[in-house]
Amino acid sequence: MVDNKWGKRIIYQIYPRSFKDSNGDGIGDLNGIAEKLDYLKDLGVDALWLSPIYQSPMHDFGYDISNYYDIDPIFGNLSDFDSLIKKAHGKDIKVLMDFVPNHTSFEHPWFRQSRSSEDNPKRDWYIWKPPKKNGVVPNNWLSQFGGSAWELDKKTHEYYLHTFDVSQPDLNWRNPQVVEEILNVMRHWMKKGVDGFRVDVAYYLFKDPFFRDEPRNPLYSEHHMQYDSLLHIYTIALPETLNMLKKLNNVVNEFDDRFMVCEIYTFLHEIVNLYKIVGHQSFAPFNFSFISLPWNATEQKKFIDEFDELVGQDYYPTYVLGNHDQSRIAAKLGEGSARTAALLQLTLRGVPFIYYGEELGMRDVEIPEEKARDPMAVNMKGFDFGRDPQRTPMQWDASRFGGFSDVEPWLPLEKEFKERNVASEEKDNKSFLNLYKSVIKLRKTRKSLEEGKLVPLDFKNPNVLGFVRKEKEEKTLILANFSQEEQIVELPKSSWRTVLSTKLDVENRKEKDQILLRPSEGIILFSE
């Protein structure tokens, strides 16, 4: 049975550039986050995950690190970071850092030394290969940001590997010196009080030592990214990578009450397998089923039931509705269904990850091509692959720049920010924000919601998903209507009382044998 505190915690992702600007440069920073800790505490979150704040030339907005041991000046300094940790811990809020172990910036001193000559001691810290005899790239591997994953270095006439942007050379995880240095980086930040890490692109660490060409993807179409034209059997999820994630988690476990979550986009059986390989309650891989699967009750129920059963009671699932790489859930589903998705995320067994602004129902923002900042959008113009739309500034109030900054922000706000913001929604009893607060409060005060088992239900209705959370004799029933039409549901035998609807217009209503679910409505019922 799970007894680890992380299985009960609610984690909130902050994209620091876009959360709160404290110094008037149009970019969010650490002191801005510190200013909003009371808001986060009132919302009910238990931990923050900060997207990268390390020193970086910002070609990929912090995912290209030039110094793992320092803070980038646009966010503040080490003193600001220490202050944020102290203030957050003072409010019983944990802090996780984004951790980028697959690659560095090409401006990192390690890479500058590595590319300086073939004899440099740091040469083998990265992945270098000579051209083929005909002068072309070493193999057919592709970059996620478009084109070949190989870039020719003119000085040494060899290619370096970059699975992502050309500014992000891949580290060589087969070099023990690299492994030890990265593990020491983790120890360094945990000694400073960091409570754990979100590991970026965790499945990419090791690559095929024989550098074999990857096979073509027979299902590929030109409407998808070029990267998807290959089956990445030699660059993703190698056995060595899975074992290394266990080693990273062992370092996390050198410290008390720490946590590590890994970014992996993969199939159910691989997610479950990773739980077993790492084998500790301080670890969980991300589950993106709400994002990747069709939004219908049948598909989601099938995944949830199987996922919960396979993960078992020794570990806990994770549930994600969005992040800095994915379109916002309210933009994809509309407000009604997004409210129901939030209800499910916060009442299922496991750890929910809330992306900043999700609690307001923030939408994607259309970014003109000439204002695109994301290198993925810039490198692949003409395709809708940019991630700027879901990274726009947090909407705090109805003032000129949404309370985010006193000057024009680095990205524009959504057009409806004057209606959709924290100050406005706090006053509206039926707002998205108050739905989040209400459900989180129930989760924290209801034992069955916080740590109870999940009992699947089958209503023989393809539009309705339901389950019971049970802890000893206490039972909580969750129902969700995925359709745009009313649905009548036969309730399980018990005496039920509706305590919350996603419409926020029902409270303490005693139910009979049946219940009417309105379009896109989710409800929580207590057994009496």
TrEMBL record:
GO terms for molecular function: alpha-amylase activity. Pfam families: Alpha-amylase, SusG_C. One of its GO terms (biological process) is oligosaccharide catabolic process. InterPro entries: GH, GH13_cat_dom, Glyco_hydro_b, O16G_dom_2, SusG-like_C. Keywords: Glycosidase, Hydrolase. Residues 13-391 form the Glycosyl hydrolase family 13 catalytic domain. Belongs to the glycosyl hydrolase 13 family. PANTHER family: ALPHA-AMYLASE FAMILY MEMBER, NEUTRAL AND BASIC AMINO ACID TRANSPORT PROTEIN RBAT. This is Glycosyl hydrolase family 13 catalytic domain-containing protein. It comes from Candidatus Daviesbacteria bacterium RIFCSPHIGHO2_02_FULL_39_12.
